[in-house]
Amino acid sequence: MQSKGRNLLCLIAILACIAVAGIGVAVQSIFIFAVSLLALCGVLVYSISKMYENHIKPLLAIFIAILLFSLFPLSNATTVTWDFESDTPGQDPTGWNIDESTNTNIEVYDDGGNKRCFLDDDNPGHFEYASMYRNFSDDLVTDNINITFDVKITEETNHSFFHVETLVTQICVDFINTSGNYRDIIVYDWNEGTPHKLADYQLNSWKTISIYILFHNFSYAVTDYNNTIWGDIINATGEKSIAFSTDPLDSETTDNTTVNASVDNIIISYGSLANLPQVETMNATLIRWNSARLNGNLTSMGDASSLEVGFQFGTSPGTYTSNFYVDTVIEPGTFQCSVGNLEELTTYYYRAYAFDPDTLTTVYGEEKSFTTHSRYGYHIDQECYGCDHGNFWVGETGYGIQSFKPSMPIITKISLYIEKELSPSDPLNVYLIDDTDNILRSITLNPGDVPSTISWVEWDINDLFVSTSRTYYIKLQSDTDVDSGIYYWKTSYDNCYQNGSFTYSCEIPGYDPSQFSNGDAFFRIYGRANLTAHFTYTYENLTIYVDASNSSSNPGSIVYYQWDWDGNGWYEDEGITATHTYSQNGTYNVTLKIVNEYGDWLTATTSITVVAGQNGTGETENSSQASGDEVNDNEGNNGNGGGWFTWKLPFSWFAIFILAFVGIIGFALAAFFMKPESIQHLGYAPAAGTILSTILILTSILLYHADVAWYWTALSIAGAFFIIFLTVKIVLASPKRKKIVKRLWGR
Fold first, then answer.
1. Helices (H), strands (E): how many in the chain?
2. DSSP states along 575-631
3. pLDDT in tens, 237-290
4. Which residues 6+ apart lie within 8 Å of 98 measured at CB?
5. For residue 644, what pLDDT is reported?
6. I need a surface site. Which of 188, 194, 494, 504 has the fewest CB within 10 A?
7. Do the strands 389-394 and 485-492 form a parallel or antiparallel pair, or are they unpaired?
8. Phi and psi at residue 685, in whole multiples of 5°?
9. pLDDT recorded at residue 256
10. In this structure, what are the phi and psi dihedrals at residue 742, rounded to the nearest 5 degrees?
11. Residue 402 and residue 497: Cα distance in Å, rounded?
């Protein structure tokens, strides 16, 4: 019994030593592995000396297995380093395959005690270059690869390249100096369609680049330790080599191109490598005119135990002025962040990131962008602004006319770049005219409506359907006496607007406007597409299914379909189809917003009642509304509205009924108080009060439908009720008058 207990303890000790040795291998710790191996040897020696002979064979087998296991290296990662320290300055780097031509050279040089390799390409021809490459493995490499190197560009000309390529996967890193890529570091796979910008480089400044080739998920990462580019590996069957070369991609240019560079500290590791995290930048969602939701996906933790994830954000490619931390995570998954205080019709750039606080390493997803839509549903369609310019004088029955050709079927607003001098004696008349001289819209700007310094003055023209194949005209005219004051329309000397021209007639003594004969007047036309927001819906119990596939935009295409499930003005979901489940029975206002590629938008809303156990279907639609008829919007107060009033025609049947009812009742009461007996006993006040209050109530209804400022309608209603109060007080001032009214009413 004692020997059996001792043998069991020895076996447990052996297994424990094996387990600890395995841990040492896993964490690549020589100390742990060595200690466990010594302990194992000690236990084995003791066991063999104490056990019977029939136990020696299995113990010996275990010992041999452990010995064989110990022969494996703690890590199967292989690292090769080429730092040129053993090479001779002035000679080719040892072990590299060199390709040189006329006026190109590759050699090792001494840089203050550090030996570097210099690639010198002073050949102005674009078919010659210097290159060096070397295999880092003769075997098939299927594990992850890390390639790190230092590069310094010491001379360059326009349209020059310095090219680094990993032939194993054809992943390339280019240092490019062109007009379109000014000192850019570009990363790409030969099989990818679009290269990615990693960073900028500076002349005569070392840059460290690391390339991670991750075979376990067929992806790659390239980092300069400030920025990281991720991509997919398309082809991984090439040579196990690294190549450096000058201008190998520019064989079609006719420019004289040269580029000189230094390389050093080339370190390549492959096998069991530490894995970097991987993060993906996803498309932004729920984009509004002033907010959006950024989305990211942490696809791999790498070797990190926790990561801080978030987004970098800005208004220029590659430049990020804001950093949005989202969360600290311990496992892969999606994350998101809502950003606000954005500007309408503005493009924003962003990328997701993951930061490892233990290694102080940050990796980034690919840069993506989105454009906010317009605030009011329209955008600038045509514009002339910013050329060399002077002032066209509008006065003394003179006029200036600017033609334009819209690209949108609806015009919503016009802006003019104008000012006044002194105090003009007459107003400024503005007309929108078609090519048959029909006045489509007009506005009268009083002198007080025009600023004294050059400014944009907006004119809401009340939406107008136009033809994109026709030419339209903006005309400014005034009869002001130039001795009292004049209007200026900022105008260019050159034809900077290609879709129209400026013409004029001027009778101002001593003024010659011929300098603008080939010019254009400054203006902006705001337009929008003809939109139709349409959706069908089906509800089953408390779940609603919606489909907006019959919505349309002409011209353009719809890029966003957004859904507001409860009518609160915030859109919770998006997609051409969507599903939502309510928590309880009720009637809900469901709104669809469609946004097209220009940022124009339109909504359609319907009320849907959902009840548990009930099903139903329906649809709703809303289309762009505009007028194509001639309308005169004489506006004398300012240039920022669409006329003093804009009729909401046609009236609804309910509005017509209310008008008729109030009119009939009011004038019937007025007729009653106008009877001779009523006037004899009550006087003229009740009749006058009834007529006046009836007129004010009718006026209030008309003002509402004329879409004037709300305070005019409120003032009219307040006046009507005040007069009604006085009339009733007069009629019912005493019991005697009450009896008289009752007796007269009975007749």
1. 8, 43
2. SSEEEEE-SS-EEEEEEEEEEETTS-EEEEEEEEEE-TT-EEEEEEEEE---B-S--
3. 656 888 998 865 544 444 566 788 999 999 888 776 567 788 999 999 999 989
4. 92, 106, 131, 132
5. 39
6. 194
7. antiparallel
8. -60, -45
9. 61
10. -65, -40
11. 10
Assess contact for 32 and 39: CB atoms under 8 A: no
Q: Which residues contact 266 (CB under 8 A, 6 or more apart)?
A: 81, 82, 83, 147, 148, 149, 242
More confident of the two residues 130 and 507: 130
The residue type at 200: D
CA dihedral of 552, 557, 559, 560, whole degrees rounded to 10 = -10
Residue 628: the pLDDT is 59
Crossing angle, helix 653-673 and helix 685-705, to 10 degrees?
A: 170
What pLDDT does residue 653 have? 59
The answer to whether 511 and 518 are in contact (CB under 8 A) is no
- Which amino acid is located at 29 in the chain? S
Other beta carbons within 10 angstroms of residue 41's beta carbon come to: 14
Contacts of 155 (CB under 8 A, 6+ apart): 203, 258, 259, 260
For 72-139, where are the alpha helices, taking DSSP H only? none
Provide the 8-state DSSP code for 357: T
Residue 556: which region, alpha, beta or left (left: phi > 0; alpha: psi -120 to 50)?
Answer: left
- pLDDT exceeds 50 at position 637: no
The alpha carbon of residue 479 and the mean position of all alpha carbons in its chain are separated, in whole angstroms, by: 48
> Residue 25 in 3-state DSSP?
helix
Q: How many CA atoms lie within 13 A of 471 on its CB side?
A: 13
In the predicted model, is pLDDT for residue 69 greater than 50? no
CA pair distance 397, 507, nearest whole angstrom:
7
**Residue 173 contacts by C-beta under 8 Å, 6 or more apart in sequence?**
163, 164, 165, 185, 186, 187, 198, 209, 211, 222
- Lowest-pLDDT range, 151-160, 557-566, 632-641, 714-723? 632-641
Enumerate residues 6+ apart whose C-beta is below 8 A from 61: none
- Name the β-bridge partners of 738: none
Backbone angles phi, psi at 26, to 5 degrees: -65, -40
> What does the alpha-carbon distance between residue 275 and residue 300 come to, in Å, rounded to a whole number?
9
Sequence-separated (6 or more) residues with CB below 8 Å from residue 57: none
Q: Omega before 555 cis (within 30°)?
A: yes
pLDDT at position 479 over 80: yes
The DSSP 8-state label assigned to residue 316 in this structure reads B
Judged by DSSP in three states, 456 sits in strand
Question: What is the phi/psi pair of residue 32, to 5°?
Answer: -60, -45
Beta bridge partners of 281: 296
Does residue 562 or residue 713 have the better pLDDT?
562
Per-residue pLDDT reduced to its tens digit, 354-385: 988 776 677 888 889 999 999 888 999 999 88
HEC sequence for 323-355: EEEEEEECCCEEEEEEECCCCCCCEEEEEEEEE
Residue 473 clears pLDDT 90, i.e. is over it = yes
Backbone torsions φ then ψ of 396, nearest 5 degrees = 55, 50
For 413-454, how does the pLDDT look when each residue is reduced to its tens digit (9 = 90+)?
999 999 988 888 889 999 999 988 889 999 899 888 899 998
Tokens describing residue 82:
């080429």
Q: Which strands, in side-by-side order, build the sheet including 601-610?
A: 573-574, 558-564, 586-596, 601-610
| SS3 readout for 94-145 | CCCEEECCCCEEEEEEEECCEEEEEEEECCCCCCCCCEEEEECCCCCCCCEE
Pure H helices in 233-307: none
φ, ψ (nearest 5 deg) of residue 488: -115, 135
Residue type at 114 in one-letter notation: N
> What would the two tokens of residue 357 be?
């606080």
Contact 145, 269 (CB under 8 A): yes
pTM of the model: 0.53
Minimal CA–CA distance to 43: which of 68, 74, 19? 19
Whether pLDDT at 30 is above 60: no
* Contacts of residue 663, Cβ cutoff 8 Å, sequence gap at least 6: 694, 698
Asked whether 518 and 512 are in contact (CB, 8 A), the reply is no
